[in-house]
Design goal:
Helices cover about 35% and strands about 10% of the residues. By secondary structure, it is α/β, with parallel strands linked by helices. The two termini are about 20 Å apart.
């Protein structure tokens, strides 16, 4: 799961995906990550209200190895998908815009 700062959207998306698909490995990172920062308190509370814990999340910068090792890269915006495919041509075909930002969190 990829967003920009890696403190809200992609950590939320990652924990929701892990909850619904516990048999797959899921990581999150940011194209402009606020490296070392924890998840935003609002995101922590939002997930906590749903019984999910992201309080130990630490923001991580997206690296070539993240992209290379992933079977699927989901981004929060079309622009992020385009950025990844431009910077990592080998990501073409496995990078998708997840559209999670337009979906209501349940």
């Amino acid at each position: 799961m990829v967003c920009e700062g890696n403190i809200c959207r992609s950590p939320i998306a990652a924990v929701l995906l892990m909850k619904n698909m516990p048999h797959i490995g899921v990581t999150s990172a940011g194209t402009r990550a606020l490296v070392g920062r924890g998840a935003d308190p609002v995101a922590v509370q939002l997930m906590g209200d749903r019984g999910l814990d992201i309080s130990n999340h630490v923001s991580t910068l997206l690296t070539p190895s993240h992209v290379r090792n992933a079977n699927l890269v989901l981004t929060m915006t079309r622009a992020q998908r385009e950025l990844i495919e431009t910077n990592y041509p080998y990501a073409r075909g496995k990078t998708r815009w997840s559209r999670l930002t337009t979906t209501r969190v349940r």
